[in-house]
């Protein structure tokens, strides 16, 4: 891709309004005779005395339920301040509909009925972010294409970023590239998320030269290679199976003086864990602590997983305890990682004990939990005497869990029969 053809000097590019606002609305007056044109449309409120007032968005904390206006999503950090916007009744209906409907034409026809208002825009973008959390890439593509091709809204960089991300996740790097060029044609300024997502899309599709071209292009335009961009680069390489290249980019990140984030360290721990190098994963974890970078639950879980893959139960349990001492409450993924450690080490009763502990602590097991437990007993030679089924059924606390574990056991027996038939 020739990125130069799609780029122009950044200070010459401007962003146009996202949607058309009726000029008469701006000029109308309130009962006190104050012209509305003095205020931003979504910053106006009436105080207890009936006077028209205006608030400053920058001074309104999102933690006190400030307006998200579609800006809550950041690729590198989830939602701003970790606050998830509450869906309006309309947004909730749109989300429920899009999770069921798959036909783009019908989706577009329904979205056509939305009013061209800021509230509608906010709902559409919030729904798109919620769909991203659920990994509904096709639905995101439908809704973003509707914004671009059929709606009266002027798309902003968030819309283009969501679309690039969705195409990248589906390994459609050409479509992601085309969206990036459309962003420039629409005279919209790309941000670091845009470059990060495009690099990730290329890496996931194995187009490493293209990824390097984007990386170089950023430097040509004086844009710093932040942790967000590096993390996306590394994440894409790992998802594309290029672990050696991912490690190389980590070293480049350090050499460039880019400060590693929690996500950076967590990914490197994951990388070494998958490579069977738990000692290196622990070394990275210790380096993280020495740099005063506080691990989160994902970091601890990644390290537990690293030891689990090698069946190192004691080390896995040690890290699990450190996580709790740090004030972090284990989730189902952390418990599953510890169960996996006992399973791989050949201690099914240890895995069962962790399973019971998880339930006792009010953490609901998922399907992976049952699979790990089945596998633990299977590896220990309990496939044929019904021991696995008895242990699993005894661990169930409600009818839904009994149905789930019964399904897992059926699958296990079916797989066993297939293996024996082949043998």
Protein architecture, described:
By secondary structure, the protein is an all-alpha fold. The protein has helices at 23-27, 89-100, 104-111, 118-133, 137-149, 157-169, 173-185, 192-204, 208-220, 227-239, 243-255, 262-274, 278-290, 297-308, 313-325, 332-345, 348-360, 367-379, 387-395, 399-422, and strands spanning 44-46, 52-54, 73-74, 78-79. Strands 1-2 form a two-stranded antiparallel ribbon. A hairpin with a 5-residue loop joins strand 1 and strand 2. Helix 7 (173-185) runs antiparallel to helix 8 (192-204) and helix 16 (332-345) packs antiparallel against helix 17 (348-360). The longest helix has 24 residues, at 399-422. The chain is globular and about 60 Å long. Residues 1-48, 55-72, 77-83 and 415-423 have low confidence and may be disordered.
List the helices and strands and how they pair.
Elements lengths: L22 H5 L16 E3 L5 E3 L18 E2 L3 E2 L9 H12 L3 H8 L6 H16 L3 H13 L7 H13 L3 H13 L6 H13 L3 H13 L6 H13 L3 H13 L6 H13 L3 H13 L6 H12 L4 H13 L6 H14 L2 H13 L6 H13 L7 H9 L3 H24 L1
Helix pairs in contact: 2-4, 3-5, 4-5, 4-6, 5-6, 6-7, 6-8, 7-8, 8-9, 8-10, 10-11, 10-12, 12-13, 12-14, 13-14, 14-15, 14-16, 15-16, 16-17, 16-18, 17-18, 18-19, 18-20, 19-20
């Amino acid at each position: 891709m020739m990125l130069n053809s799609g780029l122009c000097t950044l200070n010459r590019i401007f962003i146009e309004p996202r949607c058309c606002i009726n000029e008469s609305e701006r000029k109308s007056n309130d009962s006190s005779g104050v012209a509305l044109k003095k205020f931003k449309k979504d910053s106006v409120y009436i105080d207890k005395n009936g006077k028209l007032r205006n608030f400053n968005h920058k001074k309104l904390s999102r933690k006190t339920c400030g307006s998200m206006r579609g800006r809550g999503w950041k690729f590198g950090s989830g939602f701003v301040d970790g606050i998830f916007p509450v869906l309006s009744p309309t947004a909730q209906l749109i989300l429920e509909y899009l999770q069921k409907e798959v036909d783009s034409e019908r989706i577009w026809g329904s979205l056509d009925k939305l009013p061209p208002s800021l509230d509608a825009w906010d709902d559409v973008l919030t729904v798109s972010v919620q769909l991203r959390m659920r990994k509904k890439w096709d639905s995101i593509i439908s809704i973003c294409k509707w914004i671009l091709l059929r709606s009266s809204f002027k798309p902003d960089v968030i819309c283009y970023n969501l679309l690039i991300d969705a195409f990248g996740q589906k390994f459609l790097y050409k479509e992601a590239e085309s969206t990036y060029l459309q962003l420039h044609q629409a005279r919209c300024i790309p941000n670091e998320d845009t470059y990060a997502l495009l690099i990730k899309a290329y890496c996931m599709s194995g187009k490493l030269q293209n990824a390097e071209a984007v990386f170089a292009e950023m430097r040509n335009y004086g844009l710093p290679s932040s942790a967000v961009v590096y993390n996306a680069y590394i994440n894409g390489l790992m998802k594309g199976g290029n672990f050696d290249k991912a490690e190389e980019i980590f070293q480049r990140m350090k050499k460039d003086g880019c400060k590693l984030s929690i996500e950076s360290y967590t990914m490197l721990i994951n990388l070494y864990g998958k490579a069977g190098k738990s000692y290196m994963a622990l070394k990275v974890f210790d380096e993280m602590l020495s740099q005063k970078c506080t691990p989160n639950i994902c970091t601890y879980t990644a390290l537990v997983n690293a030891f689990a893959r090698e069946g190192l139960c004691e080390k896995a349990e040690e890290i699990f305890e450190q996580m709790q001492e740090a004030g972090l409450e284990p989730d189902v993924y952390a418990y599953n990682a510890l169960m996996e450690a006992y399973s791989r080490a050949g201690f099914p009763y240890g895995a069962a004990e962790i399973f019971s502990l998880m339930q006792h602590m009010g953490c609901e097991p998922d399907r992976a939990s049952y699979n790990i437990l089945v596998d633990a007993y299977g590896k220990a030679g309990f496939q044929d005497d019904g021991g696995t089924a008895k242990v699993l059924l005894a661990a169930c606390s409600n009818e839904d869990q009994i149905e789930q574990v019964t399904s897992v056991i059926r699958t296990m027996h079916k797989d066993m029969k297939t293996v024996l038939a082949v043998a």
